[in-house]
Amino acid sequence: MNYEHFHSIQFPLVVTPTCFRNYGLCPKNCSAGFHCYDGDIQGLLYHLCISDFKSHKLYFYPTSTFALQLPLIAVQELPVKKIILVLSLLEQLKFRLDIKDQHEGRTVFLEACSRLMKRDKQYAAEFPSLVDWFLGNTKFNINERDNEGWTSLHFIMELKHEEFIIPILKKLLQHGADPSIEDYNGFNPLGYAVYRHELRFIQCLIENIPEFQHGDIIKRAISKAGVFSAKRHYLRTWLQPQPKA
Known about the structure:
Blueprint: H1 32-38, H2 41-54, H3 69-77, H4 80-92, H5 108-114, H6 121-137, H7 152-156, H8 165-174, H9 189-196, H10 199-208, H11 215-222, H12 230-237
ANK repeats: 148-184
Keywords: ANK repeat
Pfam families: Ank_2
């Protein structure tokens, strides 16, 4: 089924009988989750407002403990444009997007960040627009941490498509992300990059992102580098007075 026409949907949506003309024939085992998985906005709206409500299958009701499942399905499976459509609908229906899942302690935003490790280049390229949506439509803490102490900046360091890391980092830092926050193993984002990436990448990070040039952040990153490594030598040069341009 082609869902491209849903990209032009304007919010808020108005629920009318004609919206659901073709959804009365859904299989008995159908649920909001199936339509969310496909990015089917009208089918999702049908189940949330009529079908599941009438049959008392309130698993996805905004105040239930399962309310987080639908937005998590969206950020895990859909392209960014459809994620924004689904989250816009759920936000309109008063779903809480700032609560954390019980397993990993991640909000919808942190889960979206974690998906950068697994999703394709298109997801990474469009991710800044998803950050803009969260900033403009929800109340969330951009420095929130999961059960491992990871923030959005930590997850960005795991992005397999390195060419998108700098633009995403700049977007997050522009809106107040704190590069000095350490996870529960004592790694700040730069320290994790030192542990995880090659020297060329560390150079690219520091030389393009002024926030990573702060002395305390550099010192903590040095503690994660090998004693006689090229990374350690490079980092130490940033503790010396830099020549003025």
